[in-house]
Predict the 3D structure of the following.
Amino acid sequence: MGYSHMAIPAGLVPPMCFCGDPCKLEMSDEEETFRRRYWMYANRAFDPPEKALMEETIEPPPLCDFEEWIDKEVKEKDREWFNELRDWNAKINAGIVARKKEEEQRNERIVEEKCRAAAKRKAEREVKLARAKRAKAALEENPDALRKGKWPSGWLGVKRCSAEI
Ligand SMILES: [Zn+2]
C-alpha cells in the first residue's frame, strides 16, 4: 500500500500493534482510499539499506500486519484533488509522448534526406561515367579531337598520355 508518514495530532492515541509497539499514523495515496488516515504496524521484518530507505526503492515486509482505518471514507475535496493530480499527470505524459514522436519524425526526415542525397550523387556519377565513356570512345575514333581543345587537358588522364606517345 502506498502511504505517507504523518505526525500524530493531539487527541489521537495510537493503538497497540500485535507486537506490543504503538502503531504509526499513515495516510493512503492510492486512488480508492486517497488521503484516508490509518494506523499501521511500525515494525518491519528487516532494516533496508540506508540508500534504499532514502529512495524508497525497497519496502521490507511488515513484522506484523496490523492496519486500522481512522477515516472511513475519502473526502470529496480529496477525491477532486486526486482527479486533478491524475489529469495533470496525464497531461505531462501526453507532452512527453508528443515530444518523443516529434524527435523520431525529425530523425526519420534526416535519414531520408541523407538517402536522397546519396541517391542523387550516385545518379550524377552514372551520368558522368557515361559521359566519360562517350568521350573516350570519341577520342579513340578521332585522336586529334584532344588537340583541338574539345576536352580540357587532363580530362582523360592516362588514356590521353598513351594516345600521345
Ligand atoms: Zn507490530
